[in-house]
Amino acid sequence: MTMALGAVQVLILILGAPLARGIIARIKAWFQRRQGASIWRPYAELGKLFQKEDLVPPTSSLIFILAPRVMFAAALAVAAFVPVLQPFALFGSVGDFVLMVYLLALGRFFLALGALDGGGAFGGMGASRDALISTLAEAPLLLALAAVSISARSASITGIVGGTLRQNFFEISAVHILAFAALGMVALAESGRMPVDNPTTHLELTMIHEAMTLEYSGPSLALLEWAGAVKLNIMLALLISLFGPWGMAGSLSPAALGIALGAYLLKMLVLMSVLAVIESSMAKLRMYRVPDFLGVAAALSVLAVFFTMIAKR
Amino acid sequence: MEFVGIAAGKVVSTSAVFLILTIVGLAVARRISTCVLLFSMQSVIITAQVAATAYLENSREAWVVAGLVFTFKVLGIPYAFFWLVERLKSPRDVKASTTPAQSVFVVVVMVFISYAAVRSYVFGIRVPEDALAAAVALILTGAFLMVSRKKALMQMLGLLVLENGIFLAALTTTFGMPLVIEMGVLFDVVVGLLLMGIFTFRIRDTFEHLDVSRLRRLRG
Amino acid sequence: MVLIWPLFIPLLGAALLLLCRDRRVADAVALAVCGVEILAIGNAVWQVHRWGSIEGRYLRADGLTSFFLVNIAFISALSLVYATGYLRHVGEGRFSSARWFYALVYLFLFTMVGVCLSANLGLLWIMMEATTLASAFLVGFYNTEGAVEAGWKYIVVCTVGIAFALFGTIVFYLAAVKGGLSHASALNWTTLLAAASQKQFDPNLVRLAFVFILVGYGTKVGFVPMHSWLPDAHAEAPTPVSAMLSAILLNCAMYALIRYEILASRAIGTEFAHTLLLFFGTFSIVVAGLLILVQRNLKRMLAYSSVEHMGIIAIGVGLGGPLGLLGALLHTFNHSTAKALLFFGAGNVRHNFGTLRMDRVRGMARSNPRTAGVLIVGGLAIVGLPPFSLFVSEFAILSEAFTQSRYLIGGVFLLVLSLVFGGFLYHLLRMICGASQETQPKPHFARAEFAVMVVAGVCLLYFGVHIPAAFSVLLREAMTVLQ
After folding, report:
1. Which residue in chain C is spatially nearest to B208 when comparing CA positions?
2. Domain contains B18
3. What is the residue range of B153's domain?
4. Chain C contact present for B147, CB below 8 A
5. What is Dmax (Cα atoms) for chain B?
6. How far is A138 from chain B (nearest CA, A)?
7. A189 and which of A137, B117, C269, C405 could share a cystine (Cβ 3.0–4.6 Å)?
8. d(Cα A262, Cα A265) in Å, to the nearest integer?
9. ipTM metric
10. Within an 8 Å CB–CB cutoff, is residue C299 touching chain B?
11. Could you tell me the pTM of the whole model?
């Protein structure tokens, strides 16, 4: 039964990803006093892309076709790590947060390879920029996750969530606040949102993530877009479950599950609104200032680890 | 009502973390107005701490102090700073002598140092360790801002952050000094800022810039 | 109350002076207020002499207070009389208005008298910070580049220093509260003194507090390395203000330090406080003495000399013992007289030669004999030659050092004194001797200015030979507080 629930969680994350994108775009449009597209639009886009032909540059190799599939598979695998409705995930006992982080890195690595393989100039540019960002973002990501895992005394994501659940709501701990701040900044960097990267830009020289997907078309592009959306969804779900897991189902009764689903949707909505507001109010950082941004995230995560040492909580 | 009591008891120590977040923010901020906003947020947190102390100790004096801190440090002084930035018409850049990455590193080291320094003193007094360490970190950050930021306005702001830290240290260790003294201290700070503000106008008029690192005529 | 008068007369005088638009009226009112203030201070000193000490919740006075009040009264009288002559000859363009000058000076006086009369350590802090604020505009009065820079540095460095002193005050308050005193009375000096004698205070806290107080108030005194504001401020301010800064403000800051030293010594013994004071004092005299040799601006050199003499006073207090303390107290008075005299002379040099650069002034003996005489008298006095009074106080401190077998400190002291002697006289003689310059304006010397300088010079001479009975009574009462 729990396995089925785990599979349902993965499906929620994967199938709900385009919807998350659509909702964020809608909130941004409302914030900017525009009409905005329908929230189901990304599904239509994916459907359109899946029906188109997959054009492959003649100079590319197997990597070019492999990259979107590996990226999607990695996103799928990581989705199985994150608990949504219950402090349980399909891959919860398979590995800890380090494995999760490096699965994400695997997907990114192959994406960069595929972009280079495509042969276009912008692919290389996007790949090098993305490599810089992901390198700098890796340290705060790992440190922040390490900090919460030390304070929860468990290395697996489900263990951390369980630990946080057992804590009293009023025992707001310094570790969690700092780690939340650090992870929030890393989430922005990893999912390619403002102020690190503009997901809606069409000027090639300002692209980071989109530059890597310029050469793709058809199902490959669909898989890449979907994987990107799934990554964003995973980061948001991770933030929710690590730092605000209250409302998760303790038992398997339909009532508890219903409450858990409602709580999850509500928290996602809040987080998405915050993201939309941040995206609408900040300008994209110049490339040489992104290391400063991630440096602040690193400093906050270092402080989070430091606080695990001195905290009596 | 007990809920309020618990919340008040927690406020003083948990808000220390938010103070550290503002300190990190001050280290990386690039515009004077951002720094002023961060100072304003710091003062809001400190007002909350004073109010919590006033509630727990049941002291009317502390409520008056909370009101004064709110009026002056959250509303008055930031508003005066914004007005000053407007009127001076000088570049809004902070003119830091260290890159944001270096500043953040220094700030993190200072947080470590403040915790280490507070450790040895906490055992004698029943003091929330977080709040006192945050106070020392504020003092060190204020000093760092004054030294590393080359704009006259930033030196004033560094002084304000320093004074915030000292006030918080007084609050956590002794629950505040007698009301008359607190009011005198606040009055001195406000008048001092007023005078410094007038001086920045004079500096701008005499030197045509507000970069204090270029005030090097008198040496030796 | 007796103590309210000396405190509020300057304040009322400042308000009154703002109404006087005419310069001559302002001069007259300023002098009148000065006279009334001297009477008030005299009355307070007399009352303290009769009753031993006057206690109150916020204001108090004892022997030490009256000693410093006499110092304030004397020097401020000299400076104000000098200022009336000085302002008359400074062009209208430079001075925005005489009434603002006098009003700010009296505000400044109010804060300094407040420092001396405080019974509450918090009030002491407030008044000390207020002295910085009141004098900031006086330092920047001329509104030139140098003055604005000096004023900014002054206000920033001193405010930071005093913020650290606030921290020290808070730690002291904490120690007092932990030692059992009630919140309301934990900052009162008399209560603290009594409690300190009972050894009620946590020694760690008192040590921490004293360090911060020393750094904080030491910034105002001008200890090296916190002295960076001093040369600029004293050099760029108008001459009467320079005299007041060097001669009164530094003494008031030293007064605050002495009060805390008494408390700390009572609480944890004299070792800690004295070691720190000796360290800062020796460091100050060495650095200041060396820097005097390379100065080019007359007033800057005088400012460094003030740093050096404050270091000497700190050494005197740090040595302790009857001779050391006597020497230190006497030195505060003697140094202020000599420094005021020298600054007045420097003002005159600026007047007649248009510059304070010592290498551009030549042949004063021939062209301005009276100014040269003033500078010679002041210079000989300040380097500590007999028969001037500074010799007496420095000799007392030196003999205390050798009595306590602190040969290193005594030796360094002597060495620096000789260095300063050489440097000072070199600079002064270079200005005075030699052929006078070709185009010399007719020497200017206001009668008021000269009279004041004569008074100061005579005082230096007289005190060097014999201390009048009234003054020695004052000294004795101050000493009883210190021991």
Report:
1. C145
2. yes
3. 2-213
4. no
5. 63
6. 17
7. A137
8. 5
9. 0.89
10. no
11. 0.86
